[in-house]
Amino acid sequence: MITDLTKGRPSSLIWRFTLPMLISIIFQQMYNICDSVIAGNFVGSAPIDGELALAAVGASYPVTMLFIQVANGINGGCAVVISQLFGAKEYVRMKTAVSTSLITTLALAAILTLGGLFFCDPIMTALNTPADIFADSALYLRIYIAGLPFLFMYNVCTGIFTALGDSRTPLIFLIASSVGNIILDLIMVIPMQMGVAGVAWATFIAQGVSAVLAAAALFARLKKVKTTHKNPIFSPHMLKTVSRIAIPTICQQSFVSVGNLLIQGLVNDMDSAVLAGYSSAIKLNTFAVNAMACISNGISSFTAQNIGAGKHERVPQGYKAGMVFTAICVVPFLVCYLGFSEAMIGIFFSEPSEEALRIGVSFLRAASPFYAVLGIKLLSDGVLKGAGAMKSFMTATFSDLLLRVALSYALVPHETVIGALTVPGAGMGFDGFLWAWPIGWGLSAMMSLWCYRRGNWRDTAFSEALGSKKN
Questions:
Q1: What is the torsion angle, in degrees rounded to the nearest 10, for the CA atoms of residue 371, residue 377, residue 380 and residue 385?
Q2: Which residues lie below 8 Å from residue 362, measured CB to CB, with a gap of 6+?
Q3: Quick one: 411 exposed, middle or buried, by C-beta within 10 A (0-12, 13-18, 19+)?
Q4: How far apart are CA 452 and CA 128, in angstroms?
Q5: Confidence at residue 170, expressed as pLDDT on a 0 to 100 scale
């Protein structure tokens, strides 16, 4: 159901609109975690086989996240423009923005698929992937990359639904996809004994079916939006308009993922037990981060529609409602990750090694107390993006990347080669590396909050995002 977010009490709208999105994230992360749980518990006949399988899936995780973040960046950029046009009741231009976004997204996905398949092994080599898991990691990544067109189509379709105020339809597809993925995981890994490849193929099939169904549902929904005349299917001007928002969003998402790749390179340089423990913890951490990012995306859609309608005064009301929702969302993660950290890490292994368990628990206990700080940052970023204030958005979010990567390399012991001289690093080990996350989140949250409170997004938002009214 398409919902106009420019009318009604902001707090009630935010809760009703964002709750289905949050449930969607829960199911999405559930099947991501199940991939690792099934790999860690059912691949091979001995505990060490499961630990290596989990490490193999985890070694390629930042690469898969890079592709996901590019898809999310396109999703976010398209959604802002479509939301603003929907709020302004410019339905012809809105439909042109939808079709232009879909065509461009599929073209980009095809290019990334070809490039990713060609450079798969060099990427895994550059990440210092351990030899004992290299083959499985590369195989998992190849299968995942082959499904990128489905991933991109699905993300953009669900982003468009959200831009139109419909957060329930994406929830239905997410639930079906998640349940289907888990069932396929179990079938392909246990009775069919396909190992890590089975985990990858399950994701490929589930994403493919969901993408096709989501696209069909979107086209059916758009037919119900009546317009005075037929909209152009593709518009270079609209592509430029969408790109003004999408490219900075893609860059922001990609930069953060590249930072995660650099951090993963540090972890991969350690042993497989450390990698397995880190991989399990980072999946749980991503669950929490994506839940808060989901609320941020809801605020972004709310902001965009109201900016398009010229109702700037409603944006701070939505921001406050988002703060309350985020605070409530953080509580269960704190309880689970602080109070039951060993049990949470334990679900990924049949019999975890002492080192893998220690690494995973240490990460959760270091990061989770700062989730509320990260929530403030993401909400502030959501307003900036929804308003189309991309310079402030990029400044605020890029700081997180620089801080976390710089701190990771400073706090993890490493060697610097100067000519024939090798200089040992002075880092604090993996325990020191953990502090890169909360410190980076804290400092970047201050930057995002300052950009929001400064309020210059009120003056430039609609004109910067949409430009002149041409098709």
A1: -110
A2: 281, 430, 431, 434
A3: buried
A4: 39
A5: 80
Contact 169, 109 (CB under 8 A): no
Question: What residue type is 357 in one-letter code?
Answer: L
Q: Identify whether the C-beta of residue 465 lies closer than 8 Å to the C-beta of residue 84.
A: yes
Asked if residue 73 lies in contact with residue 255, where contact means CB atoms within 8 angstroms, the answer is: no
Q: How far apart are CA 292 and CA 371, in angstroms?
A: 9
Residues 6+ apart with CB under 8 A from 186: 38, 42
Give me the DSSP letters along 55-83: HHHHHTHHHHHHHHHHHHHHHHHHHHHHH
- Cα 103 from Cα 113, distance rounded (Å): 16
Q: Contact at 8 Å (CB) between 322 and 405?
A: no
Backbone angles phi, psi at 165, to 5 degrees: 85, 15
Amino acid 356: pLDDT: 83
How many whole angstroms separate alpha carbon 152 and alpha carbon 167?
18
Each residue's pLDDT tens digit, 270-290:
777 777 788 888 888 988 988
- Spacing of C-alpha 225 from chain mean position: 30
As a whole number of angstroms, the distance between CA 277 and CA 55 comes to 8
Taking only the tens place, the pLDDT of each residue in 232-263 is 888 888 888 888 777 777 776 666 667 777 77
Assess contact for 385 and 76: CB atoms under 8 A. yes
Q: Looking at 167-176, 179-188, 424-433, which range is the least confident one?
A: 424-433
How many CA atoms lie within 13 Å of 56's alpha carbon, on the beta-carbon side?
29
Lowest-pLDDT range of 348-357, 363-372, 442-451: 348-357
Residue bearing tokens 């086989």: 49
Beta bridge partners of 418: 421
Q: With a threshold of 0.85, does the pTM exceed it?
A: no
> Taking the chain, what is the end-to-end CA distance rounded to the nearest angstrom?
26
The tokens describing 100, both together, are 């232009």
Q: How far apart are CA 180 and CA 162, in angstroms?
A: 23
3-state secondary structure of 424: strand
Tokens 């709750």 -> residue: 19
The span from the CA of 86 to the CA of 257, in Å, is 31
Amino acid identity, position 174: L
Q: What is the dihedral of CA 17, 20, 25, 26, to 10 degrees?
A: 140
Distance of CA 414 to the CA centre of its chain: 29
Position 365 scores a pLDDT of 92
Amino acid in the structure at residue 17 = F
